[in-house]
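From the pipeline queue, job 12 of 40. The input is one protein chain; the requested action is below.

Action: predict structure.
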Amino acid sequence: MNIYLIGYRCSGKTETGKLIAGILNRQFIDTDLKIVEEEGMTISEIVDKKGWDIFREKETYALKEVCAHDNQIVATGGGIVLNRENIVNMKINGTIIWLKATFATVKNRMLLDSKTKDFRPSLTSKELDEEIKETLLLRKPYYEKAMDFSIDTDNLDIDDVCKAVITNLKF
C-alpha cells in the first residue's frame, strides 16, 4: 500500500512525506521532483516552454510509474486531483491523505519558501492573494472527493502533522 499526500501548494506534502517515510522505513517520492529530474527543467521552465497541459500529462505519466510500485510515501503536485484518472490510480493501491491549509497559511508559507519561484509557477494571471483564494476554492471539492481522510495543517508543526497522519492510517 502506498500513502499519497494531496493538497494545495505549501500544505506540507513534501516535508511530511519525507518524515513519514523515515518513520515507516519506506521510500519517499515527490511526483513534482520526479518530473523535474526526468525533464531536466524546473516546473516553471516546463510550464513556460510547454504549457500546463503538457505538464499535467507528464504528471499523470509520472504518477502511473509511481503507482506501479508499493510501500512508498508519495507527495503529489497540488493539481494532481484535477485528473480523475490520477485519483483512480492512487485509490487502487493506496490511501490518499489531504493535507489541508487555509489561505493565510498557504500565503505565509509561500512567501517564506525560497523554492516557490521554481516549483510554484503562477496558476493564473491574477495577483497572489486572488490566485490562492480562487484555486483553493476550485480544488476543494476535488480534494474532498479524492481523500480517504484529511489533516488540518494550519496550527500543527511538521512532527504533529506526521503523528496525525500515522495515527489515522489503518495498516
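Job complete. The first strand starts at residue 2 and ends at 6.
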